[in-house]
Write a structure and sequence with these properties.
This protein is an alpha/beta fold and about 220 residues long. It is about 30% helix and about 15% strand.
């Protein structure tokens, strides 16, 4: 995977986060296309079904029709990362390439813990709302370590002033850096970006391209 010609036989599946749409991943999708990747930017009803249902339905449909000779990568934001983990925990993709996760709540969300008692939270976010907490029995805690090549980008610039001050630092306003980490990950990078729009930041896009191509990030002194 060292040139544009080889990238033409690779496809990147993009999965947005909770209560977002494929439009939120469009800028990143265009950047991938510009260097030669084929893409599938998936729109899915993130607030209508539990994680298990979403994972099976969304990823199975995203994979439909892709030939075995084509390498499949994933670039995911937030909840999209959990769907990939859930799917791969029971169904290997034999032509899987690399996975880049942006702001994934791999260890659960403390904000979800705080909001569990409130009916409005569950009405707005749907069945997933009850599954994103840090409780040891939550679905996130049952997924285990990564058995695939994954790089994780965490943000540490919080603009969500409603939640950020109450979260352990560093955090991106919604997810702590500690929560993004995952046993078995190949690389981890912290950048000065916030959760909601990190996928549109040029520095994040550059690092996504770097990991897909090389299997590691360009750290350049960024760490946390």
């Amino acid at each position: 995977m060292t040139d544009i010609e080889s990238e033409q036989n690779q496809i990147v599946i993009l999965l947005h986060g909770l209560a977002r749409s494929a439009r939120s991943m469009r800028k990143l999708e265009k950047a991938l296309q510009q260097v030669g990747y084929q893409t599938r930017n998936i729109d899915y009803p993130s607030r209508k079904f539990p994680i298990a249902n979403l994972s099976q339905q969304v990823i199975s449909e995203a994979l439909r029709g892709i030939p075995p000779s084509m390498t499949i990568h994933f670039v995911t934001h937030s909840l999209g990362s959990i769907l990939v983990r859930h799917y791969l925990a029971s169904q290997p993709i034999h032509n899987l390439g690399r996975v880049v996760m942006l702001g994934p709540p791999n260890q659960g969300s403390q904000i979800a813990d705080w909001l569990q008692p409130y009916t409005l939270y569950h009405r707005f976010f749907g069945p997933v709302a009850a599954q994103l907490g840090t409780d040891p029995q939550s679905p996130l805690k049952q997924l285990g370590s990564a058995k695939f090549e994954v790089g994780i980008i965490a943000g540490y610039r919080a603009v969500n002033l409603l939640c950020a001050p109450f979260l352990p630092k560093p955090n991106d306003g919604q997810v702590t850096v500690a929560s993004t980490r995952l046993e078995g990950m190949h690389d981890h990078l912290c950048l000065p970006v916030s959760h909601a729009f990190m996928m549109n930041r040029p520095m994040v896009i550059r690092q996504v391209l770097c990991f897909l191509k090389q299997g590691h990030f360009d750290h350049n002194g960024n760490h946390c």
